[in-house]
Design brief:
Blueprint (H helix, E strand, L loop, with lengths): L7 E7 L6 E6 L2 H9 L5 H5 L4 E8 L2 H12 L3 H11 L10
């Protein structure tokens, strides 16, 4: 996945057992996932080994992506899992390059 101009992402990561989620936003999804995997992401993701991409949305502005991140962070856990499962029923790790 090449970095495209004017694209921003709101994404959800999980650990290998799918027991914890992390929600973030970025303008470069590939770079940000790499940061999480190598321990340079959020301290929360490092502490709980959360680096499997299981969901993302694409936006045309940073403010939209950030707004969506804040909204999702306030959702109940069940709502988040329902959103993820609507497009990723088996909770597989999404491949990006």
């Amino acid at each position: 996945m090449e970095k495209e101009k004017n694209k921003f992402y709101c994404y959800i990561l999980s650990n290998k057992n799918r027991t914890v989620t992390y929600i973030g936003y970025t303008d470069d999804l590939v770079r940000r996932i790499h940061q999480h995997k190598t321990g340079y992401g959020a301290l929360f993701t490092k502490k709980y080994n959360i680096y499997d991409l299981i969901y993302f949305e694409i936006f045309t502005s940073k403010s939209e992506a950030k707004k969506r991140e804040r909204k999702l962070k306030n959702w109940k856990k069940e709502w988040k899992w329902n959103l993820i499962k609507a497009s990723n029923q088996n909770l597989i790790t999404l491949k990006i390059s």
